[in-house]
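Why run this: before we spend reagent on co-expression, it is cheaper to look at a predicted model of the complex and decide which construct boundaries make sense. The entries below are exactly what would go into the expression plan.
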Amino acid sequence: MSAETTSTPIATVRAPGLLRRHWPWLAAIAIALLLPWLFFDWTKGRHSGFVLTMLSEIGLMSVFALSFNMLMGQTGLLSFGHAILFGLGGYCTAHALNAVKAGTLWLPVELVPLVGGLGGLVFGAAFGYVVTKQRATAFAMITMGLGELVAACALMFMGFFGGEGGIPTDRMVGTSLVGVDYSSSWQVYCLIVAWVAIATVLMRLQTQTPLGRMANAQRDNFERTQFVGYDPRMIRFYQFTLSGFFAGIGGALYVLVYEIVTFDTVAAAKSATALLATYIGGAGSFLGPFLGTVVVVLLQSGVSLISNAWLLYVGGLFIVMVMFAPGGIMGIVARHEPIARIGRLGELVVPYARILPPGLLSVLGFVTLVELAQLTTIGAAQNKSLAIGGQAIDPHSALPWATGAVMLIGGGLWLRREARVFRVRWDALIEEAKARGLPV
Amino acid sequence: MSNAIALRGVEKSFGRTKIIRGVDLAIPRGERHAMIGPNGAGKTTLFNLISGRFPVTSGTIEINGQAIDGLPPHQINRLGLSRSFQITSIFPRLSVFENIRCGLLWARGYRYSFWNLLGAERALNEEADRMLERLGLQDRRNVPAGLLSYAEQRALEIGITVAGGADIILLDEPTSGMSHSETEQAVRLIRAVSEGKTLLMVEHDMSVVFGLADIITVLVYGEVIASGPPAEIRANPAVQEAYLGSEAA
Amino acid sequence: MEVFLVSLLNGLVYGMLLFMLASGLTLILSMMGVLNFAHASAYMLGAYFAFTLSQHIGFWPALVIAPLLCGLLGAAIEMYGLRRVHRNGHIAELLFTFGLALIIEKVVQMTWGLLPVPYRVPAGLDFPLFSIYGTHFPAYRAFMLLISLLMFGAIWLGLTRTRIGLVIQAALTHPDMVGALGHNVPRVFTIVFAAGTALAGLAGVIGGNYQVTEPAMAFTMGPIVFVVVVFGGLGSLTGCFIASLLMGLIQTFAVVLDYSPADLLKQFGVTVTSATPFHEVLTVPLPRIGALLPFLLLVLILVFKPRGLMGTRDT
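The model came back. C-alpha cells follow.
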C-alpha cells in the first residue's frame, strides 16, 4: 500500500504494479547481471572467466533442475534418466549450430536454445510415451534403464553423437539479431541469463495452469484424478514432454557455454546431479531446485579446485537431508513460517547460536578426515599436499587423524545435547502456533 | 432410456470368490437411491464396478443408456458420473480451494491445458469459491487439505465429487465416522447438492438412509434381496431378518 | 561347438554370480519395498574387503570374514538409516540408498584409490581344471560355481526349513500380513537386509577377482542386477533364478557371436553399405549391443509385462 502512495501519479499504473508484484524476479536478474562485476579484473579490463563459467553453469543447471522438478516435485515422478533429454537437446543444438555455420540453415544465435527445447520436446514425447505408462518405483527403474540405454548409444553411434569425442561446435556463427558476435564470455553470459529467466518464468507459469495443477493432484492421489475426469497417464505424458522441452533448453545453453557436447551430458551422473540439487534445495517448492543448484555448483566448482571430494560432501549433505529434512532447504525455511506468524522467531536465535559451534566442529572434523583419507590415495597420486598456516600436514602421522576424529565425535556428542535443548524450544513454539489455530 | 444407471446380471469374482452374484438394478434419472446391507455384502465392490475401477466378470452396466464395458474410470466420469470414496480420497498437499477446482477443471473444458493461467479464470474461481461456501469450508480455503479435520475432509470429499456438476452422483458412506451433528450437516449438504440429480449412496446410518432415499435396495452376499420405497423396506420381513433385525431391535 | 560349450559354462558362472546379488535384492525389494541402490555397493565392498583381508590373513579367512563385515554394515544401515527414513515413504528410502551408493563409491575411491586393485585369484585355485577342444576352463570358475550352488542350497534350506524363513516367504507375497501374524517385523527386516547385503558381499569376494575390482564396479553391476530383479518378477525367487541365468547366458553369448543386423540382411540378399539409411545401426556388431541388451530388456519388460517373468505383484 505504501508503495502506491509514494509513487508519483505521473508514472503509468502498470510499471510500478509490475515492479511491486514481480520485484523478486527483477532483483534476481539484476543480481545475475551485476554479480560478475564484483570479480571484474580492472587492471586487465576483463571479466573473470572462472566466475562467468560458474554462474553460467548455475544458470543452465538450474533450468535443468527445475525441469527435473516438474517431474519429481510437481508430479511425484522420480526420474533417473532425465539427463538424456538435457543431452539430446544439447546434441540437437550442436548440430543446428554446425548447420548454421555451414550455411545450410539460417537461425539467429539468440534463438538457438529453441532448437534444444524442441529436440527435448520431441524426444520427451517419444520416451514419455513409453515411460509414463508407469509411476512410482517402476517409473524410476524404467527411466534408469532408458538413461543407460541412451548413454550406451551415445558411445556407439558416431554419426549423431560423435562417440567419446562428442560434437564440437562454434557459437560465433555471425547470425545475431542484435549484432553481437558472442566472442566474449560476457556476451554469452548475458544470453544465458536471458534464456534462464525466460525458461524459469515459463516453468513458473506452467505450475499455475490446469495441467500443472492436475500434475500436483496426480502426485498426491493419482487414482482420484481419474474420478474427476482426467487420465493420470496423459497428465504424466504431457508433463514429461514439457519437462523435456525445458531440459532441452538447459542442454542448448550448455552447448552455447562450452561449445561442445559430449557423452557426459546424457550420462547417469548428470541425472544424479539434478536429483541431488533438487532434493537438497527442496522439491516441494518452486525455487528449491534453483537454491540446490547454487549449493551443488558452488561445492562442485569451489571444492573441486582444492579437493577431489566434492561429490562426497554433496552426497553427505543429500543423505542428511533425506534423513532429517525431507523438504530440503526450502522445507526447513517453510517450517519456520508458523513461528514467524506468531511473531516469536526471535526466540530461536539463541538456540540456533548454541547448535552452531558444535555443528561447525563436527563438519570440520568430517572434512578433516575426508581430506586426510583422500590425500593418502587420490591426492598422493596427483602429488597434492596439505598445509595449514604454512605447516605441512603429514597424512600418514596419527595426530591429524586423531584431531579429526575427536572433532567429529566430540562435536557430534555436543551437537546431540544442544539439539535436544533446541528441540524442546522448537516444540514449545510449534505448540503455541497450533494453539493459535495455525495449520501446522 | 430414462434410466441413469442400469445393471443387468452383473457378476464379479475375485479369484474363486464370487462377491457379486448377478445384480439387476435400474435407477431412473433424478432418483435418490440408497444401498444398504451388512458388511461384506459387496456394496463398495458394486460401486467400484459402476465407476469403472474394476471390470465386471459378466453382465452389463449402462450409464445414461451407454454400456461402459471396458471403459476406464476417467471416461466413465466424462459420461457424467462422479463418485466419492469410503476411505477419504482427496489431494492432501493441495489447498482446499484447489481440491475443489481440480474437481471442476475437466467438466469446464480445460482438459490438459498448459496455456490457461488459472489465476485469471475468474468464472472458474468464483464457482469453486461458491462450492466452498456450500460446503462450509470457506474459512479453510487456503489450508492444505491434509491438515483438515476428519469431518471437514469428508465434506471436501463430497465437494470434489459434485463440483463438476455430474448428473449421476455415487457417494460411498458419506457420513461414516461422523458425530451426530456432523451427520445432520452432511445430510443437509447431500440433499442440497443432489437436487435434480441422480444419487446412489451406500450408507450404514439408517436415519440418513430413511431420511434421504426415495428407493432403498438391500444387498446381502452379493444379491439384491429387496428393493423399494423406505416404508416397504422397513416392513419387509426378509430384510428385517437379514439385516435390520439385529440393529432395529 | 567348443565356443558354445565354454560360453555355456561361462554364462552359468556369471549367471550364478548375478543370482547371488539379485536374490538378496529381490528379498529386500519384495518384503520391504526398498529398491536398494546400495546393493551393488555391498558387492564392491565385499571385493575390496576381501582384497585387503587376503593380503594379511589370506583368501580363505577373507572368504568368510568379508561377507560378514558386509552383513554387519547392512544391519547397521537398516537399523540406523532406513528405519528412520521409512516413515517418509518408499521413494525416500530409495533416495537414501542412492545417496549411500554415491558415498560408498567415493569412500572406496579415497581408501583404495581410483585405479583397479590387484585382487587376484588365490594361487591354490589358479590352474586350468580341464580343457575342452584346447580351451582351458579355470578351476576358479568351477569354485565360483560351487560356492554359488552351495549358497543357493543354503538359501533354499533357510527359506523352507526355518521358522524365520517361512515368515520371509509369507512376507514375499503378502508383506502387509506379517505384522498381523504377530512377528517382530523390524527384526525380520534387519535380518533380511543384513543377509542380503552379506550375500552381495560374498558375490563380491568371489566375483572381484573374476572381474576387475575397481571403484566403478558397483555402478556397472547395479543396473544389471536391477534388470534381473525386474525381469524375474517381484516376490519370486524362482523367477529371479531363471532371470539371472538367462542374463548371464545372454551377455556371455552376445560377446562371442560377432554378427550384426547387416549380416542377417545379407542372408536375404540385402547388402548394407555406408549409403544405406541407418547403416550405423545395422552394422553394429552383436558384442557391442550386448552391453545394451539388459537395459533394452528392462525397458521392454516394464512396458509390456510390468510384473516380470514370474512376479506375483506390481513393481
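The first helix of chain A runs from residue 2 to 6. The interface with chain B takes residues 205-206, 208-214, 216-217, 219-221, 223-231, 234-235, 238, 242, 439-440 of chain A (CB under 8 Å). Bring this page to Monday's planning discussion.
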